[in-house]
């Protein structure tokens, strides 16, 4: 699973890993029943064995039933398929089968850490700028596992399992096992220290100290094994950090994935549970909670324009999306897990590995956030741990019941297959549309993607943009034919229908849908009747769903500016500046709005701020330098006029009284653009 990466789907991570879990869970359940049909009876642990595992499903069902978007809560959505009730049920099935089938924890652990290690090796390719076969050049922080935090969490588990296994291998003198775990330990430890995810490294250090203090690991006693490995690790890490060797190796700068901080995660979840106290807003809807309650403090960070689908960890996710009831179920689930950890720890060294894995997974999920692979591994381990506790077993020997269960599980596989066909076909066509440079081919591929998955917002938003792009290009022709005009009108009509469907039917709570609607009417300014009004209404609705977005306020101000409604434009641009005072485009547009509204002195101040914010090299700075001269002349003229008016006023005042100064309140790196710079459809069409 850590290696699973399907390049022909647009969503290469979430989709494929989620559907792999879904299929594996149902296939394993079917095989379990088929095997027991052959034996003419099925032996399963009593229901109490699955109580802890069932709590997440119970919380998920309640959240889905009262969800603000039941489809997303049930099936997931583009880029976030794992945040769904389907996935929680699949986890429970995996735990159930693991509890009733003899599984080897050692073998399963080896498969996991081998997958993580191979994924880490490919991540080294990316770090050194080496082309990955079948994929090509990728960013330095690329990983088959997903985000950098996902990989770091998997590496923390892998390093600690390998470390513990090395101690046992050294005692048993198992050379093959020693070599395997040594390789795993070195590869993952080096990458962790090079990438330097502080929380992941902290987990490894703290758990290692515990293992040594609890006499579970003896570094001194096994110095023939650990001393050479530690030396190799520090040597390789030094090579990656030393400037000369770093340059020779071509080590790229490593950038960690953006992550919502703890404070902002709490603020969003607290606001969400205030409005949806008992069952939350619904599984998979955190991104809509985030935009609605997004703290303005994020505008001062590099992630100011990111819309997060996950908070810092799942505690905040369950609080926001499943409410107090869901959070209680989630917390109680972990109470059962922690009880298992202490129980297994008391049982001696033979079961200590189970306790160690559960503890490290718990720490990783709490400190490094949601991790699909770790959740699957967790439920497998919980199933295995259930076998190590005393539970009663009940037997079902009625063949009719066994056949019914087998047929039901096979039926679920068929239904999942139909669903997967629709989803994967849409993903494949959408991916093809992203790879082609031909606009007409892109249009056809996206249209086919929508035919297979018509309720996916991402496809429809991008398809709308493609419609507008083609219509804009066709409208630029010197003499468009009647056929061209008819096609342009059809494309425009199709764009309007799509954005109305997005905002009124598919998902009215998705700010991106309203933003797209605003962009469509924005492009139709001067062509469609009342387009400017519709655009401002759409952006206003978008702002209601994400009031702290500087970009949305900038877009709204641009609509007002184009209408020559300078006062409203100034207010919108000023709000954008207030939310993010280092946003050059907001200051730039505010400068022009102030100038055109008759406030050249304030306009000059805003343009001077732009000059300080943008790089001094490049076309934008040259453009600003020229504009500053024009604005300076206008400001000088205004100051001279004000001075003259003040002099005349002073001459008419009684002796000893000074004229009061009129102090104007100043309203609180991307290419600088004004509204009229944006491509629009030719009004002559």
Automatic annotation (TrEMBL):
TM helices/strands, residue ranges: 20-37, 44-65, 85-104, 111-130, 150-167, 179-212, 224-244, 315-337, 352-380, 401-424
UniProt keyword annotation of Signal present: no
Start and end residues of each stretch annotated as Disordered: 639-685
InterPro entries: TPR-like_helical_dom_sf, TPR_rpt, WaaL-like
Classification via SUPFAM superfamilies: TPR-like (SSF48452)
Protein keywords: Membrane, TPR repeat, Transmembrane, Transmembrane helix
Extent of the TPR repeats: 550-583
Signal peptide: none
PANTHER family: LIPOPOLYSACCHARIDE BIOSYNTHESIS PROTEIN PA4999-RELATED, TEICHURONIC ACID BIOSYNTHESIS PROTEIN TUAE
Identification of the protein by name: Uncharacterized protein
Natural source organism: candidate division WWE3 bacterium CG_4_9_14_3_um_filter_34_6
């Amino acid at each position: 699973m850590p290696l699973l990466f399907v390049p022909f789907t647009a969503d290469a991570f979430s989709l494929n890993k989620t559907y792999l879990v879904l299929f594996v869970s149902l296939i394993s359940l079917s095989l379990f029943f088929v095997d027991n049909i052959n034996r003419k009876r099925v032996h399963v642990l009593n229901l109490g064995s699955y109580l802890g595992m069932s709590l997440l499903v119970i919380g998920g069902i309640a959240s889905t039933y009262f969800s603000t978007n039941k489809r997303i809560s049930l099936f997931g959505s583009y880029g976030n398929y794992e945040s769904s009730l389907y996935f929680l049920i699949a986890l429970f099935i995996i735990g159930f089968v693991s509890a009733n089938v003899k599984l080897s924890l050692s073998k399963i652990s080896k498969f996991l850490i081998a997958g993580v290690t191979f994924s880490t090796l490919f991540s080294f390719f990316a770090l050194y700028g080496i082309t990955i076969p079948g994929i090509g050049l990728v960013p330095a922080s690329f990983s088959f596992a997903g985000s950098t935090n996902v990989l770091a969490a998997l590496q923390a588990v892998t390093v600690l399992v390998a470390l513990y296994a090395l101690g046992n291998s050294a005692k048993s003198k198992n050379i093959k096992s020693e070599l395997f775990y040594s390789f795993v330990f070195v590869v993952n430890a080096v990458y962790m220290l090079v990438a330097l995810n502080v929380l992941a490294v902290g987990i490894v250090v703290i758990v290692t100290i515990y293992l040594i203090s609890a006499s579970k690991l003896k570094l001194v006693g096994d110095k023939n094994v650990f001393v050479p490995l530690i030396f190799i690790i520090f040597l390789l890490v030094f090579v990656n950090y030393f400037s000369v060797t770093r340059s020779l190796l071509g080590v790229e700068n490593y950038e960690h994935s953006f992550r919502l901080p703890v404070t902002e995660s709490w603020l969003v979840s607290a606001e969400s549970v205030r409005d949806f106290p008992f069952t939350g807003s619904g599984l998979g809807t955190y991104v809509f909670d985030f935009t609605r309650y997004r703290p303005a403090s994020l505008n001062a960070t590099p992630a100011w324009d990111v819309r997060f689908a996950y908070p810092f960890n799942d505690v905040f996710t369950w609080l926001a999306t499943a409410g107090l009831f869901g959070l209680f179920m989630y917390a109680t689930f972990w109470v059962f897990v922690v009880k298992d950890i202490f129980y297994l720890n008391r049982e001696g060294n033979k079961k200590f590995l189970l306790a160690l894995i559960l503890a490290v997974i718990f720490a990783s999920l709490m400190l490094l956030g949601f991790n699909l692979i770790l959740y699957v591994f967790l439920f497998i381990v919980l199933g295995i741990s259930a076998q190590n506790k005393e539970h009663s077993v009940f037997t079902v020997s009625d063949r009719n019941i066994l056949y019914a269960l087998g047929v039901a599980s096979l039926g679920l596989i068929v239904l999942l297959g139909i669903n997967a066909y629709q989803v994967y076909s849409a993903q494949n066509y959408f991916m093809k549309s992203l790879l082609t440079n031909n606009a007409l081919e892109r249009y056809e591929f996206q249209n086919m993607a929508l035919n297979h998955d018509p309720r996916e917002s991402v496809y429809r938003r991008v398809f709308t943009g493609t419609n507008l792009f083609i219509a804009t290009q066709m409208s630029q022709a010197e003499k468009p034919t009647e056929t061209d005009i008819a096609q342009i009108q059809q494309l425009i009509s199709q764009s309007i229908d799509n954005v109305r469907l997005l905002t009124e039917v598919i998902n009215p709570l998705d700010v991106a849908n309203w933003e797209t609607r605003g962009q469509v009417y924005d492009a139709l300014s001067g062509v469609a009747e009342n387009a400017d009004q519709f655009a401002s209404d759409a952006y206003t609705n978008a702002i209601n769903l994400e009031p702290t977005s500087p970009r949305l306020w900038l877009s709204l101000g641009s609509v007002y500016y184009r209408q020559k409604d300078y006062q409203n434009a100034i207010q919108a641009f000023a709000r954008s500046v207030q939310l993010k005072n280092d946003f050059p485009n907001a200051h730039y547009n505010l400068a022009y709005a102030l100038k055109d509204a008759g406030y050249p002195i304030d306009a000059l101040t805003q343009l001077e701020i732009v000059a300080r914010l943008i790089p001094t090299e490049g076309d934008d700075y040259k453009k600003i330098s020229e504009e500053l001269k024009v604005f300076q002349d206008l400001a000088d003229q205004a100051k001279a006029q004000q001075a003259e008016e003040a002099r005349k006023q002073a001459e008419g005042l009684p002796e000893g009284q000074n004229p009061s100064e009129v102090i104007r309140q100043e309203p609180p790196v991307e290419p600088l653009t004004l509204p009229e710079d944006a491509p629009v459809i030719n009004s002559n069409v």
